[in-house]
Amino acid sequence: MVTVREASYEVLRSFGATTVVANPGSNELPFLDRLPADFQFVLALQEGSVISIADGCAQASGKPVVVSVHSAAGLATGMGALTNAFENGAPLIIIAGQQFRSLMTLEAIVTNRDATMLPRPLVKWSFEAPSPESVPAVLARAAACALTAPTGPVCVSIPLDDWRRDADADISKFAVGRSISGNPQVPQVEIEHIAQRLESAKNPLLVLGPDVDKYGGWDAGIALAEKRSLEVFLGSGEYSRMPFPTDHRCFRGALGATIEQVRNQLEPYDFIAWVGGALLPYHGWDAGPYLLGDTELVHVTADPAQAARAPLGRSVVGDPAAALAALVAAVGPSNLPLPQPRPTPEPVARTGTLTEHQVWDVLAEALPSGAQFVWDAPSMIGWWNRVPITQPGSYFAPGAGTVGFGLPAAVGVSLARPDRHTIAILGDGASNYTIAGLWTAAQHHCDVTFFVLRNGTYQVLEDYATLLHAQLPDIKLRDIDFVALATGYGVAAERVSTAEATVAALGKAFAEPGPHLIECNVMAESSGMF
């Protein structure tokens, strides 16, 4: 007889979910018993790293990733990282082990007391297998749910004694045969309306979000901008993906973090097509209306929840990449020239204490071909103004703004795409949340450069305090030795404080295989976000 465990692996295999990222406990061991040879097992030392590694891997590969964490304790420890995975739309199949069925009523040690409630609202679906025989079908439904637009994490609770029970051959056969495909399409009448307004408006604008990159709309976004000579904004500097080349002459950078900033940026435009992301995802509040005048806004999103919570405009639910392609076909060419490119940033002198601009200029010069970026440095937003992102699928960030994402997510991105060098741009504060992710990078010899920019404080909090007119206690980050920490986890590391030393360190990290950490001491500077 085929066991539930064997049938379940067959189901996961049929959905392409053959990577397992885990920090298991006793409840999870029967699932991991005799892991099939075609499955990749990735061990991480803490659940925040587990979920962020899986998040990066799932986004970069486009495939679902299995996460194995220990009952309630493991899942709860990873919940901070799960906020990002949910916002990023990462298709994770989280399996949280449960006690023996016979001990659940007693709430024995390591029982997950309310297994379906715990991960909510940070998963699309949460379920506990009602019987051992149901497990393969439960996993098939979980995988299908994770992969259906809007994609995202799901969580299932499975008692540890289920895995060795005999599977129901009929249930398992149908579960393995499951498939799901197709995304909702924007109705043609909506496409025609947007196209007509892009042609008739005096000053139309295209605002793009992360789902344009996620669903494969990068080229269509460029084609639409060029065909209609549109200026293009990134909807937020804190979006999780980059949907447009940052060195393109149509690109105008990112919209701001507050109501007033965005209102002022959007004031010149009379029609706005906002495609592929949450509408007006502010970080800070200030008084005043969202928009001025009679500006019309149409919002295209794959996520009905984003459409429902939009504070204004007309929202249309559908595949943003397909919508952009349809718009390219629907509009005529503009008679106007392409927008003037933004001024090229002036080079800065490479003397004295390192500034952010010095660091970005050095990084831009040293970049290896095909580099992919993971960003987790909240006060150093907009670095891509000086380090251009020119390829789709090359930028990943914490969509919920939860720090600690970048270091382990870079490991996951590298595991998914080992042929491209991964550069993790990290703040010193963010790095400490999931520093143990370095161990996994070392164990898997990931080609990742962990570029830790050490300004010695939670700078973004100091900046936000100015918006609130708040006086903070001391939040300086003193006496942290990242070189020693990295070395202890098996990652080559060095510390730099000058432009020349940074050039040399980056060159070495990019040339040598395996992970490297560079602790780069930089001046503490206001982000200007607020």
How would you sum up this structure in a few lines?
The chain is of the alpha/beta class. The protein has helices at 4-14, 29-32, 47-61, 71-77, 79-88, 101-104, 135-147, 169-176, 188-200, 210-214, 218-228, 259-266, 304-309, 320-330, 356-366, 406-416, 428-433, 437-443, 459-468, 482-488, 499-511; strands at residues 19-23, 40-43, 65-69, 92-98, 126-128, 154-159, 204-208, 231-234, 251-254, 271-275, 296-301, 314-317, 372-376, 395-396, 422-427, 448-454, 492-496, 516-521. The protein is built from 21 helices and 18 strands.
> Please, how many domains?
3
Number of helices: 21
Q: What is the 3D shape?
A: globular
Specify the helix fraction band: 25-40%
**Which residue ranges are poorly predicted, with pLDDT under 50 across at least 5 consecutive positions?**
none
CATH class designation of the largest domain = Alpha Beta
Going across the major beta sheet, what is the strand order? 2-1-3-4-6-5
Instruction: Briefly note the CATH topology name of the largest domain.
Output: Rossmann fold
Number of beta strands: 18
CATH architecture of the largest domain: 3-Layer(aba) Sandwich
* Mean pLDDT figure: 95
Tell me the CATH superfamily of the largest domain.
Thiamin diphosphate (ThDP)-binding fold, Pyr/PP domains
| Largest β-sheet summary | 6 strands, parallel
| Strand percent estimate | 15-25%
Please give the radius of gyration in angstroms: 24 Å
Derived structural class: alpha/beta
What distance lies between the first and last C-alpha atoms, to the nearest angstrom? Answer: 63 Å
